[in-house]
Amino acid sequence: MKALKFIIAGIALFLAGAGQAQVDVTVNIGTPPPWGPVGYAEVRYYYLPDVESYYDVHASMFICYVEDAWVHRTNLPSRYKNYDLYGGYKVVITDYYGTAPYKYFDDHKAKYAKGYRGPDQKTIGEKPGNDNPGSKDSQGGNNGNGNSKSQGGGNGNKK
After folding, report:
1. Given 90, 120, 129, 141, which residue has the most CB atoms within 10 angstroms?
2. What does the DSSP assignment read for 85-135?
3. How many domains does the chain fold into?
């Protein structure tokens, strides 16, 4: 019986101490890339019309259609090695919550064709080696790293 009292007292002390403990939880959801558009820190996806690909801000990865499948990669495919992420237009996807934005690729491709340019965009950071930061007319390559709203619908088939 004495042992049972010690066990109960120990549990009570443990619970009392745990009740006052503070829990610190940090969630790292990814930081927008320096070439991302200003003003959309909480957005998860950009659609890049010129390369018909997506960028997942939370995962810091591109989502590209390669060999009949949508794949996640840290860099754009080599065929886009000269694509300028700072100068290219980024369509900010504000109305999609999930893990497969390409589900609406057909709609995005139709609405935001290659060469699409919406309202002027400024980038979060300066383009490396650029004397005119945030310029939509800046030139240059992909650097190896690969403000309009999107509408839903479509089946995500790449054509």
Report:
1. 90
2. TTTS--EEE-S--SS-GGGGHHHHHHHS-TT---S---BSSPPTT-SSTT-
3. 1
pLDDT in tens, 4-40: 666 776 676 666 555 554 444 444 467 999 999 999 9
Query: For residues 149 and 42, what is the distance between their CA atoms, to the nearest angstrom?
Result: 14
More confident residue, 150 or 3: 3
Hey, how many other C-beta atoms are within 10 angstroms of the C-beta on 61? 17
Q: In the predicted model, is pLDDT for residue 96 greater than 60?
A: yes
- Tell me how far apart the alpha carbons of residues 24 and 11 are, in angstroms, rounded to a whole number: 23
Instruction: Examine residue 56 and state whether it is found in any structural domain, yes or no.
Output: yes
The answer to whether position 4 is within a domain reads no
Is 76 strand, coil or helix? coil
Tokens of 133: 């930061």
Q: End-to-end CA distance of the chain: give it in Å, rounded.
A: 76
In a domain, 10, yes or no: no
Residues paired with 94 in a beta bridge: none
* Domain ranges, residue 118: 26-154
Place of tokens 């300066």: 126
34-86: per-residue pLDDT in tens?
Answer: 999 999 989 999 999 999 999 999 999 999 999 999 999 999 999 999 999 99
